[in-house]
Amino acid sequence: MKRAVFLDRDGTINREVDFVESPERLELLPSACESILRLRDAGFLVVVVTNQSGIARNLYSETTLARIHEKLQRETQNAIAAVLHCPHHPDLAGPYGRDCDCRKPKGGLVQQAVELLGIELEGSYLVGDSARDVLAARGTPLRTVYVHSGKPPQKELNALREAQSMPTVEAMDLAAAVDWILRDTRGEE
Ligand SMILES: [Mg+2]
Ligand SMILES: [Zn+2]
Question: Which residue from 29, 138, 173, 181 has the fewest beta carbons nearer than 10 Å?
Fold first, then answer.
């Protein structure tokens, strides 16, 4: 069994904007590529798990999203093992308008990755900039890192406090999250 680091996409790997509707709108944060390579080189599967309700909202298509993720792979030297997305939204009509199991804070995307790649969640991690990322790890042994590189953290952390689901640690950005993960796996903390 392999261990993984699950990464949220927007606000964690690339700059947070309302919706990334095209490859041009995907702008990697400065340390993202290097951070992903460090995780891969440490033996982790890097798995991106991302809510993409822009598909349910008709802002972009599955084909465009695939092109956006090709760019993400290209700019991270193909070090990402899998990119899994939820195209749904519970409040919208149409083929993607439903209450699914994969939209974070639900844990469906993590479970999909477990089945697809044979991941051992014990000793694995999840990193994200939203309360719903951290909440997606509830009920699993995943250790979680909340990063301050995306959404305004105060609101997100308040939501986590109310849900009594605080992250294992907080970090400024993905680079700092990876610093902590690599120390944590070596048992240095
Ligand atoms: Mg995010
Ligand atoms: Zn979904």
Answer: 138
Active-site residue, 10 included: yes
Q: What is the pLDDT of residues 121-133, one digit of tens each?
A: 999 999 999 999 9
Q: Residue 171 Cα, ligand 2 centroid: separation in angstroms?
A: 28
Name the E strands within the chain. Answer: 4-7, 45-51, 82-86, 125-128, 143-147, 169-171
Q: Could you give the 3-state DSSP secondary structure of residue 178? A: helix
How confident is the model over 6-22, as a mean pLDDT?
97
Cα–Cα distance for residue pair 37/44, rounded to 1 Å: 10
Q: Is 8 annotated as catalytic?
A: yes
What CATH number labels 4-185?
Answer: 3.40.50.1000
CA distance 52 to 38: 26
Answer yes or no: pTM beyond 0.85. Answer: yes
Burial of 46 (0-12, 13-18, 19+ CB in 10 A): buried
185 CA distance to ligand 2 middle (Å) = 31
The terminus-to-terminus CA distance of the chain in angstroms comes to 24
Q: Which two structure tokens, joined as six digits, stand for 66?
A: 């695939």
